[in-house]
Amino acid sequence: MSLIQTQAITAAGLTPSFQAASSGGDQWEPASNVFLAAKNASDAQITITVATTAVAYGQPISNVAVPIPAGGEVWFGPYDPGMVAQPGTNLADLTYSSVSGLTIAAVSCPSA
Question: Are the C-beta atoms of residues 54 and 26 closer than 8 Å to each other?
Fold first, then answer.
């Protein structure tokens, strides 16, 4: 797993850099102002799965599946760290149905 570094939007703007998705999955540091962005350059839909760690009424909360259409770009999140951060690391996990042509970025947006 690779760590996706969070890039901050500033008053001057941001052109985010995207990194190739890792075949074993990736991690990022979730926060209430951090969004994920994925670009799919392949000719098939790819599903990104956000692993959840939370439990409600004794039952695990289902993972979140985010479809990225062929040739498309999707921004998703933010995710509550209490729902997705892995115990002991404060990082959240992503896995992919395919990594062919998939790039991803984490972007934080400061509050006004």
Answer: no
Other CB atoms within 10 Å distance of the CB of residue 58: 5
How far is it, in rounded angstroms, from Cα 88 to Cα 72?
A: 34
What is the per-residue pLDDT for 112? 67
User: 38: which 2 tokens?
Assistant: 């994925």
Q: What is the CA radius of gyration of the chain?
A: 14
Q: For the chain, give the longest Cα–Cα distance.
A: 46
Give the global pTM.
Answer: 0.93
Query: Contact 27/1 with Cβ under 8 angstroms?
Result: yes
Closest CA to 36 of 56, 59, 22, 19: 19
Q: Which residues of the chain have pLDDT under 50?
A: none
Task: Pick the closest to residue 105 from 41, 7, 18, 23 (CA basis).
Answer: 18
